[in-house]
Amino acid sequence: MGLKSRIAGFAAAGPVPVFVVAGAGMRAMVQDVQLDPHVRIVDTPRAAALLLIAGSTNHADVQALARLHDILPHPRATVTWRTHDPFVALGGAGAATAVEEDDPVPTLRAVFRDILTGGRASEPAILPDVDAVEWRGIGPYGQGGSGMTGGTPYGRPMAELGPDRDGLRLDILPVSLGPFFPRLPSGLVLTAKLSGDVMTEVAVTTPGVLPSRPGSASPFIRALSGPVAIAELELARACDHLRWLSDALMAQGLPALGRRALRLAHEVRPGDGDRVRAFGARLSRSGLYRWSLPRAGLVEAGRFSGLGLGPIARAAGVAEDVRLEDEGYRALGFEIVVMRRGDPVGWWQVRIEEAARSLDLAARAAGRKTTLVGRVESPRGRLEPGDSPTNRALALVPELLSGLEWGDALTTLIGLDLDLDEAASVMDSGELRATA
To answer: With a threshold of 0.85, does the pTM exceed it?
Structure first.
């Protein structure tokens, strides 16, 4: 065995660098892959060897998927998990390895080893190799127009100047994130204008028609049409909050704490409220709230009143919760968590305490079921047939993010806990409202 083969073998024994696209109904399953030490989920396709496409994606995003695929460096390969090959329409049929099992890690490791050791050829580009610089060679300097700054290289005009919040005139940079930005739900596109690192204009759009969501409906969806055990609902709420916390910690560059929160979501049982509070206390002692979560996106309580936005509204002092209307919850002495700070720090703290109280409530719920039909409090807020807290939160995104620095804006957006799966589940046509 030559030196090159030995090096490839050693590399193949390490964690598999994977860029993941989490499609319809696969958010939780993709999260769980992070618990396997043999896989390292990366934030950019340029750092990945494998592209994992989990679940179905919107048909309109196939071109975006292909561009993402072609960004991966060689050697590279694609694995699809519980979905069809998304590149069939682009001539990429048969390129991807399909997985239908619950655990994709064995397949990921096998494919990774094959492409490193030469047992499998690196995948070619899907999109045609067309020079994107139509302006090349045009003009006296080859920049596509006249004058030193003429032309629009790569279709991007020179940045215009605009007023800054500090009274300066800075370049205004247009930025578009999505539809597969790791910190946003798949299909969501955020467009913004940046003045320095401050977002001056923001718009968000969602897929016009979402693919169907596989698997059984969540207990919150089932509670819209009939009684559901309160213990089941509250355990699911606690786990959902902990899963959100895991994602939020990962986004803050704290992967070890993020995985701990994810393991906690798997381990907690009714009555484990103190375990969650202990983890929350650990986060508070770490200085996370002081240094990583500044008072960004502060919103007055009146702006959230009546919108049924769950934890983010209750963190601002809005005492709204559908559970207060349910006789089953009132009989258990249910009390909501309310704070007086409408910023990401409050959103984190309310969710952690709600998760703890949900586990306490589940322990004493016994066999009691919900009595309210047609409306339920999901982990994100008031859920009704044809409407969801995600839809209502999307309408607030431009207002909440405008004027924030980039890091604070991303923290605020993650704090909203947008869930397109839940939103599509209650929409008759599968269409979500777009916000501009």
So the answer is: yes
